[in-house]
Amino acid sequence: MGRSVFVVILFLGLAANAIAGSNLNRCFYSMDSNGDEMVTVDEFKAALPDSADVFEEADADKSGALDHDEWESFKSSKGIEEQHNS
Ligand SMILES: [Ca+2]
């Protein structure tokens, strides 16, 4: 019984992610764990471990860190709506 409840919760979590299309709608500031207004690759991987491969794509100037404009531009280019309430 407990196990099946767990499976249902897990499934609903996965379904919610699928409906969202991706988990790339993260707010920039929710990924900037040290608050320096730059998201390094380490911060990015910590926030989005399944999406680490998009870091280089989002890092338009190849500086090794994302600034807010780069992240917003990247999301816009993907048609991703930011969700501040997630
Ligand atoms: Ca940072």
Report what the structure shows.
- With 86 residues, the chain is mostly helical.
- Strands 1-2 form a two-stranded antiparallel ribbon.
- It is elongated, with a radius of gyration of 15 Å.
- It has a domain at 24-80: EF-hand (Recoverin, domain 1, Orthogonal Bundle), CATH 1.10.238.10.
- The two termini are 29 Å apart.
- It contains five helices and two strands; from the N terminus they run H-H-E-H-H-E-H.
- It has helices spanning 2-20, 28-31, 41-47, 55-58, 68-78; strands at 39-40, 65-66.
- Bound molecules: calcium ion.
- Residues 32, 34, 36, 38-40, 43 line the site of calcium ion.
Q: What's the architecture of the domain at 24-80, going by CATH? A: Orthogonal Bundle
Q: Helical proportion?
A: 40-55%
Order of strands, widest sheet: 1-2
Give the end-to-end Cα distance, rounded to a whole number of Å: 29 Å
InterPro entries: EF-hand-dom_pair, EF_Hand_1_Ca_BS, EF_hand_dom
Keywords: Signal
GO molecular function: calcium ion binding
Protein name: EF-hand domain-containing protein
